């Protein structure tokens, strides 16, 4: 059975859907040791949405999520103006280049797994671009698992759903040795250093040329080192602002390795379509809706 993890105080989960409104109803679970460096964690969440909390955004993320969803939620139909279409009950997302808005209503239950990109790519159609992973058709191998997991969620057997998911991943993923793969090891270094390493530094660490590393990185990760570094730093900024919307933006920009606050604001806005200051105000407003005593 996946072991429950103890989360740091005020540590959020990225993307508005996965940043829990009610932390007591959010759990993370450690993966099986054989899945280390393929699965970061499993997670489950339950929320009851009102009109004040039904509006959400999916923001770009540093890893890929495979999610199993029970509830009522809608996405805008980009081909039909203001019309809404149902959120798929099973979907993958993570490296999309811009935010996507959606609406959740009433009781929501979600079970998911956070995958490193080289593991996520094993679950995608051959040749599919991982940056377009958002809501792409799910691989045929997931269909039987989806029916089982969604049934267990419907019966509120969250642990059973997580066990079924992990058992499937242990059988499905290629549990090959990755210690000697320069591209994967460079990506793991970027994750560990919060995106603050240059491609030349990564190449030196792996003892290969920059060109060779870029080729191996693209082959297994599916994106460039520069893009992964960019999105990791963005998610770090997002999480810090969610945990403390009063944080000094200049200090945060310096801590995360941006050239200056203006550079930080440009990068943040390019991925969210809002500035860090606007995002901080949104967080404060959302917290007030959750707790009237904060008003």
Tell me the span between the first and last alpha carbons: 42 Å
**Can you tell me the residue ranges where pLDDT is under 50 for at least 5 consecutive residues?**
9-18
Helicity level: 25-40%
Instruction: Return the string of H and E elements.
Output: EEEEEEEEHHHHHHHHHH
Tell me the overall shape: globular
Instruction: Let me know the average pLDDT.
Output: 86
Indicate how many domains the architecture comprises: 2
| Class from helix and strand fractions | alpha+beta
Q: Major beta sheet, specifics?
A: 8 strands, antiparallel
Radius of gyration: 19 Å
* Total beta strand runs: 8
Strand residue percentage: 15-25%
Number of helices: 10
Kindly describe this structure.
With 295 residues, the protein is α+β, with helices and mostly antiparallel strands. It has 2 domains: 3-172, no CATH class; 182-289, Homeodomain-like (Arc Repressor Mutant, subunit A). The protein is 39% helix and 20% strand. It contains 10 helices and 8 strands. It has helices at residues 117-120, 143-154, 158-172, 182-192, 199-206, 210-221, 225-243, 249-255, 261-272, 276-290; strands spanning 3-4, 26-30, 39-49, 55-58, 64-76, 84-86, 90-93, 100-115. Strands 1, 2, 3, 4, 5, 6, 7 and 8 form an 8-stranded antiparallel β-sheet that branches. Strand 2 and strand 3 (39-49) form a beta hairpin. The radius of gyration is 19 Å and the shape is globular. Residues 9-18 have low confidence and may be disordered. InterPro entries: AraC_XylS_family_regulators, DUF6597, Homeodomain-like_sf, HTH_AraC, HTH_AraC-typ_CS. Residues 182-282 form the HTH araC/xylS-type domain. One of its GO terms (molecular function) is DNA-binding transcription factor activity. This is AraC family transcriptional regulator. Keywords: DNA-binding, Transcription, Transcription regulation.
């Amino acid at each position: 059975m996946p072991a429950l993890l103890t989360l740091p105080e005020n540590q959020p989960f990225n993307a508005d859907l996965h940043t829990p409104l009610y932390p007591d109803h959010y759990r993370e679970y450690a993966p099986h040791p054989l899945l280390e460096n393929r699965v970061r964690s499993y997670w489950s969440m339950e929320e009851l949405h009102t009109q004040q909390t039904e509006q959400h955004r999916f923001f770009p993320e540093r890893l890929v999520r495979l999610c199993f969803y029970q509830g009522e939620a809608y996405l805008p139909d980009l081909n039909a103006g203001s019309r809404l279409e149902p959120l798929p009950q099973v979907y993958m997302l993570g490296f999309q280049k811009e935010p996507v808005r959606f609406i959740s209503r009433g009781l929501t239950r979600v079970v998911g797994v956070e995958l490193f990109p080289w593991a996520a790519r094993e679950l995608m159609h051959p040749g599919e671009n991982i940056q377009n992973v958002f809501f792409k058709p799910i691989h045929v191998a997931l269909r039987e698992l989806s029916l089982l997991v969604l049934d267990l969620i419907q019966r509120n057997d969250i642990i059973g759903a997580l066990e079924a998911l992990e058992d499937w991943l242990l059988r499905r993923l290629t549990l090959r040795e990755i210690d000697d793969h320069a591209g994967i090891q460079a990506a793991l270094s970027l994750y560990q250093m919060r995106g603050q390493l240059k491609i030349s530094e990564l190449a030196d660490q792996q003892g290969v040329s920059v060109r060779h590393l870029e080729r191996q990185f693209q082959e297994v990760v599916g994106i460039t080192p520069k893009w992964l570094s960019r999105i990791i730093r963005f998610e770090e900024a997002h999480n810090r602002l969610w945990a403390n919307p009063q944080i000094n933006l200049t200090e945060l920009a310096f801590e995360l390795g941006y050239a200056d606050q203006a550079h930080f604001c440009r990068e943040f806005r390019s991925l969210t379509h809002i500035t860090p200051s606007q995002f901080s105000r949104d967080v404060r407003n959302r917290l007030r809706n959750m707790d009237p005593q904060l008003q």
